[in-house]
Request: fold
Amino acid sequence: MIRAFFVAGAFAAGLLGGVSALAQSSADLINDHRTPGDVLTYGMGYNQQRYSPLAHINRGNVKRLVPVWTFATGNALGDESQPLLHGGVMYFTTSRSTFAIDAATGKGLWRHDIEYDPDTLRTICCGQVNRGAAILDGKLFRTTLDMHVIALDVKTGKEVWKTQSDDYKLGYSMTVAPLVANGVVIAGVAGAEFGVRGYLEGYDPESGKKLWRLWTVPAPGEPGSDTWPKNDAWKVGGGSTWLTGSYDPELDLVYWGTGNPGPWNPTVRAGDNLYTSSVLAIRPKTGQVAWHYQFTPNDPIDFDGNNEMILADLKQGGQTRRVLMHADRNGFLYVIDRTNGRLLAANAFVDKMTWASGVDLKTGRPILSQTTKDYLAGNEVELWPAVSGGKNWQPAAYNPETGLLYANTLEGGWLVAPAPIEHKPRAIFFGVKVAKRLWSDDRGILKAIDPMTGKAKWRVPRAVPSYSGVLTTAGKLVFSGAMTGEFTAYDAETGAKLWEFQTQSGIIGQPVTWERDGKQYVTVASGIGGVYHIHGGDARLRNVPTGGAVWTFALFD
Amino acid sequence: MIRAFFVAGAFAAGLLGGVSALAQSSADLINDHRTPGDVLTYGMGYNQQRYSPLAHINRGNVKRLVPVWTFATGNALGDESQPLLHGGVMYFTTSRSTFAIDAATGKGLWRHDIEYDPDTLRTICCGQVNRGAAILDGKLFRTTLDMHVIALDVKTGKEVWKTQSDDYKLGYSMTVAPLVANGVVIAGVAGAEFGVRGYLEGYDPESGKKLWRLWTVPAPGEPGSDTWPKNDAWKVGGGSTWLTGSYDPELDLVYWGTGNPGPWNPTVRAGDNLYTSSVLAIRPKTGQVAWHYQFTPNDPIDFDGNNEMILADLKQGGQTRRVLMHADRNGFLYVIDRTNGRLLAANAFVDKMTWASGVDLKTGRPILSQTTKDYLAGNEVELWPAVSGGKNWQPAAYNPETGLLYANTLEGGWLVAPAPIEHKPRAIFFGVKVAKRLWSDDRGILKAIDPMTGKAKWRVPRAVPSYSGVLTTAGKLVFSGAMTGEFTAYDAETGAKLWEFQTQSGIIGQPVTWERDGKQYVTVASGIGGVYHIHGGDARLRNVPTGGAVWTFALFD
Reply:
């Protein structure tokens, strides 16, 4: 369903005449991290560094930042989406709508709405959210909760194609921002909490035709199938692909994380359970796997391996390495040679960890603690981090100038025991008994982390943890939000708070920065929701109103 | 029910230590229009001029206005309320909540919530709104949709007293901001759309005890009863008192408007129907009427007489007159000698008027058109203005420096005929058949009106009419909002648009300005709702998201 905006004067289709919404190319996508006039990719570049070379806004003048426009989405279900920007038009998604907004004024240009059968929503575990769109050649690509990938005309919002990925009644859903890599639209699925078998798919951007499907859990006889019990466990083996991968166009490899094996209870699925809780290096044209690395074999705690893969060139022993950095829910920050999957470093980035004492650099495997061994033997134990991880989906940012990774960490654990579980269609597929949820006094910390050691150069503790994305810039700034509404700028070198603005809802979105006519802007969505808001039971969020709105800030001049 | 804010750090009861929330006196209320550090009364002064002597923000620098904080109320039902400000604390009401907000930062200090039996809401005709609070001696007074007046402790939000005014099941409701005059809390009722008999009441601010009730429709034998048919019509005769009156402390007279007679159909209630669609000059201590003036005898069109009464000193023929100005829904702008109720001027302020050709200055009565006479004879006719009036409740502002009244007018009519009507408890009490709603191309116009002639010095046409209040300042500025979200500053002398900001919802609130530590602030609530939004069927508002939020702006420095 497409609706034009009718609001008097404020929303005029004619405005499109004033902005150039030209089709953009694969080359534009490759250069996205270097061209701050556009934001074309999830992560502000294929490398997902969420770093901008813009420095108009910097430590000296950031206190002059003021809102220049706001755009209300009417979405009360949580705004986790990252805006895209092309040709003076901002594109923003919610689980039910896609908006085109004039970036200069904040006026709506078009909107596209999705209606869901309420039955669809029975198997959305963690918030009816959407995390953003992808763009190529005049089309905007997004996913839907009811398992479709759709392409919209960027000029009109009209649907160009709509392809069903699979049947939502199997427990699948889609919240992911697609990735366009080497001319293929790649999208993953959620659902390991409901007993799905995970996969990743490639689509033709022109027609929406499926080009390939990569199952993340092998069928009997396929490579990796020996890491599963010899029963039907693989059929509901999990390994969702619900966060967007990154891409190295020179190596032509996409790095995509996979989720937890199903069920959470590890005792009923002996083995490493490949390729769950892993990163897969994939050829985008074919979906073939070049290499894989498993963060958490036989993942005992629903750690997933989906968190973002940040690509950078890091120095190690005098050598420049093409690495992938990944702060896993399991509490370790992995640095991996992205040419071959070899582990270079893996250090804890959380304050408290009890499930493993480290990662063996030779084997790449975690060194399980006695606590975890007791857990695997069926006992109730206290494990840190807990299911929400040392960091959840909220993406970190990497600043090549400071060499630091900025991440909103979570500092929590739980008292937990394995419990019997049987797969039932569309039923929660956990098999654990949680005796108690545990938290440090500061449930979250914004940390500036040295990737090779996991150690924090500075830290900003938060009583209520942050599920906001992070942005960093050449202006030596770090931007992030709070579920209590504050949007804040920090000094990238010291963590000093330099500026703050109270938006009207909680921030769980992904800030971006961009420029237009020589002026730098910062945009973030504010709209509380998501997994912690729904399941966290945090009384301190009780009075935070639901959103949502897109806020755009610039220096006052 | 009182709830403290728990949001981490953002909301701290301790903040009250940083602001002085001293009790304020009757003298403070009398001086409110001269003391811009506080906003203690509905209308920014007993005279309801909505004029501020502040000029820090002026025509030269208003373009530097930026939002400094926003406070989300979580109210999606329309924000028509005017904020109050005292001792560094802002008080804001919605139909269900009262908020105390730190004016410096926008952080919540306390909130008080009201829960309604859903049955209460059956007889709310025009939006579940509230228009604001009154304040005296450390207590905040407000009304509730279910017919209570309550007093809250300004420091804690705890309820001090709660008095039931009458039974909502009779069709009554309360949305009005109370008036504290000469130490009495005065509050009126709505309900003439549901067959009530209107009244106004005075309460003791200390105890909540009722001091007096003034019926606006006389019982048989009482003065004015001869203006009603000799049947039971008076029992359901209307005359609601749903907008706050103004007060002249020197004359000790409160000027309070009364609403339409019931039912709308005038043919079934022959006579002038006193004291409906009138202004009553009342002694606040006793509720006694000193004089009355009826704007629309036998009100044929639900014009009401409730619109605000703005008090000023105007020159007429070399003489300074203590006047009351009133832009009635019937399309005439009345200037009345407020010492005695004598009519000084009454001129049309709308572009099109067909119901009357003028007002006879000697008798004070409208000169009915043939069209209206045809209507009274039972025929279908085209009448301008229509039920929503030439101006609805949205209060105008008067600037003594320009001598102009700034009002958001409505330019509409209807094709209508009387229809049979019988009173049934809790049922709509109209008795008209509307064949068609008619509008000028510009449904509303912000006009700068000469009070003595009704002529506009300048006009800003609006395709979607504005139901926002107006504010004017010594900075020669006029502020008002739009239901499409824009908050705008105009040059008070020319109407030139000088500044605008897009809030996230539609503005139907009442802007105020105030100062703190030598800095001037402008505050307005944004949250669409109200009668036009609900009943107007305006497709251009379909995509405006519901609010609400309190926005505070200041000059960037």
